[in-house]
Amino acid sequence: MGDTRAAVFAAAAAAFSARGFDGVRVEEVARAAGVNKAMLYYHFGDKLALYRAVVADMMREVGGRVLAIAESPGEPDAKVEAVIDAFLGAAETRPWFPTLMLREVSDGAPHLDMETLGLMRNVFLGFSRVLGEGQAAGRFREMHPVLAYVSFIGPILLNAARERVAAANPARATLPMFVALDRAELRAHMHQAALRMLQKDTPR
Known about the structure:
The structure is a single chain. By secondary structure, the chain is mainly α. The chain has two domains: 1-45, Arc Repressor Mutant, subunit A (Orthogonal Bundle), CATH 1.10.10; 54-198, Tetracycline Repressor, domain 2 (Orthogonal Bundle). The protein has nine helices and no strands. Helix 1 crosses helix 6 and helix 4 runs parallel beside helix 7 (114-136). The protein is globular, with a radius of gyration of 19 Å. The N and C termini lie far apart (64 Å).
């Protein structure tokens, strides 16, 4: 039974990421998962509940990691790097998510309920705690946490979506912006860019 639920989840995640909520039919998800519609409804209730389960899975995973990082001992700079690693790791284990999330947010998040948005809130709260800790220690400059967050998460989501385009369309690898990046180089760049953005301004 657990394998059936996982198969439905995987099929739905791939479909929603590729075509958005409105572009996916329950029948195609059930067919891709190798089950009938009744089994899909048994596990998830309906299409909207299935969609929210897909989003909540990622938010629960990342939110838990980020809150744990915020609550752990360590220097603020190292915590920022750990948060970046959590996002990069989650995007790799759930490659469907960046495209799905970018599409949902650009549409105004019409399919997300307060419970799912609450999971997203946990990600932001964890990041805000790390930011505030760095500011209190005099390591990070003063800035609105929302501005810091969008500057931080935006490049990660965009690059993950870019890499998915390249992976799905091998011929596009000939275009410069779709070339594969070395993972260590990507990680180091994201660390450096985030810390430079956050660092306290030095007197001129």
